Amino acid sequence: MLDPHFEAMLKAEAAQQPAEAPPLTALPLEVLRGFYVQTRQGQNLKTSPAEVATRDLQVAGAQGELDARLYSPPGVEARSALLVYFHGGGWVIGNLETHDAHCRRLALHSGAQVLAIDYRLAPEHPFPAGHDDALAAVRWAFDHAGEISVDPGRIGVGGDSAGGNLAACVSLDLRGDPARSLRLQLLLYPATGPAQRTPSRESRDGPVLSRAAMDFFEASLAADKHPEGRRAFPAQAASHAGLPPAIVVTAGFDPLEDEGRDYAELLTRAGGQAQHVSYPGLVHDFFIMGDVSPAVLIAAEETGRAIALALA
Questions:
Q1: Distance between alpha carbon 243 and the CA centroid of its chain, in Å?
Q2: Is 219 within the bounds of a domain?
Q3: Is 302 contained in some domain?
Q4: Which among 51, 94, 184, 275 could bridge 310 via Cys, Cβ 3.0 to 4.6 Å?
Q5: How many whole angstroms from its chain centre is CA 268?
Q6: Can you say whether the dihedral through the CA atoms of 254, 255, 258, 263 is positive or negative?
Q7: Helices 129-143 and 162-173: crossing angle, nearest 10°?
Q8: Predicted pLDDT at 124
């Protein structure tokens, strides 16, 4: 059953929706991005842990510097573990602000620092811009670990939705790099690009993530028009051997549920470690809607503990 708090939220949103309202994907990009920031911040600010310290900085991207934010929990170790994090939003929307409270919770509950990356967005910057930025940012974190008080032997990568896609792709890209060995890939309801549409993608048109929105996001990314586009679809990699341990989280009311679960199984069949955690009553994007339901805060705490164990 759908979590009652999310059910109430969805009913309230439906009641406020004008009968002739255009689909979100028809809005100008800046309007769509602003709406997403306003909506998700409004669902996440009350439960944001203020005790987590933050520092804005810049890191190397693929073609210039990127804005980033470093989250440090109270009592953090002098040489801490680090999770390099990529926000979701279909490679098109989202930024440091939409995921601020979420990153604070991950840092607080894991005891690790979290480095959130503001990578370039499509369609202005189609594939491989965001993926190349993600890879460059993780390399930067390893190469500058001392500057941010991080133990380079305890670095993981993570993200939600499109950010989970970036995290999975970076894990594949860095496989075999002896100088930059990832300890964890945290994949929260990731888009993994299965070879065929999964039953959950075929049967679920929402809530939160509609079929039209997902089609719009993937068309904006335009990976299928690039000669190396297959790199954007981690489920289609030639091999999944030798990848870092994974924590894969899925939601029961999410079109991406099946591909997250299936990707965890792919990693396990390849001889890797993959922990699949399912929240059957929750929806896509739930980690950044902490004010909506207590279940989000429970999931964040459980995920933080899992990160702590993986990066110990």
A1: 18
A2: yes
A3: yes
A4: 184
A5: 21
A6: negative
A7: 60
A8: 98
Encoded tokens for 271: 């001889």
Element (H, E) at 282: strand 274-283
Residue ranges of E strands in 50-175: 53-60, 65-72, 80-86, 113-117, 150-160
Which residues are known to be catalytic? 161, 254, 284
Number of domains in the chain: 1
Q: Which domain holds residue 264?
A: 4-14+26-310
Q: How far is 72 from 311, CA to CA, in rounded Å?
A: 15
Q: CB within 8 A of 127, min separation 6: which ones?
A: 91, 221, 222, 223, 226, 229, 232
230, 260 in Cβ contact below 8 A?
A: no
Give pLDDT, residue 197.
Answer: 87
Cα separation, 285 vs 52, whole angstroms = 22
Span between the terminal Cα atoms of the chain, in Å: 35
47, β-bridge pairs: none
Q: pTM for this one?
A: 0.97
Phi, psi of 272 (to 5 degrees): -95, 180
Q: pLDDT averaged over consecutive 10-residue blocks of the chain (312 residues)? A: 97 86 84 96 96 98 98 96 98 98 98 98 98 98 98 98 98 96 98 90 94 95 96 97 98 98 98 98 98 98 98 98
| Domain assignment present for 19 | no
Q: Is residue 20 part of a domain?
A: no
Helix (H, G, I), strand (E, B) or coil at 29: helix
d(CA 270, CA 100): 34
Are the beta carbons of 104 and 49 closer than 8 angstroms? yes
Dist. CA 258–CA 42, nearest whole Å: 29
Find the CATH number of the domain harbouring 156.
Answer: 3.40.50.1820
Amino acid symbol at 231: R
Q: Which helix (H) or strand (E) holds 12?
A: helix 4-16
Find the radius of gyration of the CA atoms of the chain: 18
Q: Are 306 and 247 in contact (CB under 8 A)?
A: yes
